Amino acid sequence: MAEFQAVMKLAELPLASMRAVTLGGRELVICHTREGVFALDNICTHAHARLCEGRLRATRLVCPLHGASFDIRDGRVLGPPAEVPLPSHALRIVDGTIEVALAAAAPGGSAGLPEAPPSQPPAERP
Ligand code: FES
Q1: CA 71 to CA 60: how far, in whole Å?
Q2: What is the pTM of this model?
């Protein structure tokens, strides 16, 4: 099981705001709402957009590129065009510090990033 690691002070993240952080080479978005504080992958599962540049409406996170929306409490899709849930991560607050334990990497690559196409040597011609 992943260990909790400090990512920022709660005091640095006002209510109804979000911020991108990097943990273990993975980019996350930390969201602070009346429902609590939540950590999710920062890259939209539809294409490659940074969700921290979108909008946070209560517990709904809206992608800035095509408008897909996710529930920040569990990463489930609330609105298209995304179909794949957003990976979410365990979070706790210890003495005013936000700590996150990373979930397993998303299938197909870390942080939902598309995998690079396999490089192939040029075909030999007879
Ligand atoms: S990249 Fe997020 S909805 Fe398309």
Answers
A1: 5
A2: 0.81
